[in-house]
Amino acid sequence: MKSSVEGVAAVAVTLAPPASPPPASATITTTTIIPVTETSMDSGSGGTFGAILIKGAQIINDDSIYIADVLIQDGIIRELSSKIQEPHGAQIIDGTDKALMPAGIEIYTEFSSLDSADEFETGSKAALAGGTATIIDVIQPKPQETLLNAYDRLCKVAQSKSLCNVAFSVVISEWNDMIRKEMNTLVHGKGINSFIINIQKDEQLFEILEYCRSLRVHARMIPENKDIIALLEKRVRASGISDTECFHLSRPEAVSCLLLFFHHINSSLLEFPESDIEDQPNNVFATLEADMVNRISVLSKLTNCPVAVMSLSSPGAAEVLLQQRSNMLIPEIPVTALDDEESNSALHTSWRYAKSPSAVISCFSNLPLCICTSGRCKMRKKDSAMENFAQNAISAVEERMSMLWVKGVLSGLIDPMRFVAITSSNAAKVFNLYPKKVFFG
């Protein structure tokens, strides 16, 4: 049996019962992986390797577990069979009682961000150390910089510095004919197949999603009502709070709780009495995030465009996704949702899933194309101490897979095949890298 899978990680694990096979992904343009150069190869990212034969390993795909020998040559799996004859000069590795699974794909890094503590070299090293061989970095153009210029600038950096596979997702913050033309060039000339939409107006969102559909790419959106959140952030700061708690309070799970907070801190911030708040039925105060998820779902269906919902942080939003159970919505959930321990991260200390971990586990277990991410970028310590709130991610992309394995698999909440799906194969399907990158077969 022949195979051309690239990037695998060997991990000793305890196997759990299999899960049902995940559904096929929507057909979209294939994303382009930026090749590493000789410079980065000299640092340890590639080059010519001797043959490696792994004997008797337990192979874990997203839909099956079986025992086989694996022959790797020049960093690529060349053969997969129940028994492979040992090639001359090959390094032999005993895979007994060990599992061999596809390397992870991290779809949300910001190594190109000026605020990031990591850049492509250190970030990619961390990714590889944690079992991730492919990252998708976010391109945020500078003020007055075109999308194409931003892509070319960061592509050169990634090509010379990254030690692992790199692809890009480009942020769209405005909508006009020039942006439309640049998106077309990025898709057909540069291999971009996803765009992060940072626009609030429904009319523009509708047009962008329609255009994404025509380009055969998918959109990605953070479910935040930025107009309301900007107002709430201003009021929270006015109350004298500027640390990590401000992030939580400006993105309330229940609006009624936030209104009561403002009333007790400073009644002048609001113009209605506390009694009017307390008399409202609970269902009136829907979460802002859940409302945005529902809105994204409607626009996605109207335009027939797949949309990835990024950085979910509330059980209310998770419930909307579970009710929809649509392949048009692709949940991207940070692994910090599983961590209820204290840390300096805003999403660690204020993560609403920590109060109801079953919500995130339900998403990881039941939503067909759910993807586990590491969050956003890790900020430099001096920047995280500023009044603009704290960082909102785990320390590095290195921690994502190990944290999910401990919190999800070893605790019995998900099985190893589902682990492969949400850390690797689902991302490959969404970004049209499947099955080359993440499937043994």
Description of the structure:
There is one protein chain. By secondary structure, this protein is an alpha/beta fold. It has a domain at 103-226 and 287-430: TIM Barrel, CATH 3.20.20.140. It has 16 helices and 14 strands. It has helices at 38-45, 120-129, 147-161, 177-190, 202-215, 226-238, 244-249, 255-265, 274-278, 288-303, 315-324, 346-349, 357-366, 381-384, 400-409, 416-430, and strands spanning 8-11, 52-60, 65-73, 76-81, 91-94, 99-102, 104-109, 132-139, 165-172, 194-197, 218-221, 307-310, 329-334, 371-373. An eight-stranded parallel beta sheet has the order 7-8-9-10-11-12-13-14. Strands 1, 2, 3, 4, 5 and 6 form a six-stranded mixed beta sheet that branches. Helix 11 (315-324) links the parallel strand 12 (307-310) and strand 13 (329-334). Helix 5 crosses helix 10 and helix 10 (288-303) packs parallel to helix 11. The longest helix has 16 residues, at 288-303. The chain is globular and about 65 Å long. The chain starts with 7 loop residues before the first strand and ends in an 11-residue tail after the last helix. This is Amidohydro-rel domain-containing protein. GO terms for molecular function: dihydropyrimidinase activity. One of its GO terms (cellular component) is cytosol. It comes from Brugia timori. Belongs to the metallo-dependent hydrolases superfamily. Hydantoinase/dihydropyrimidinase family.
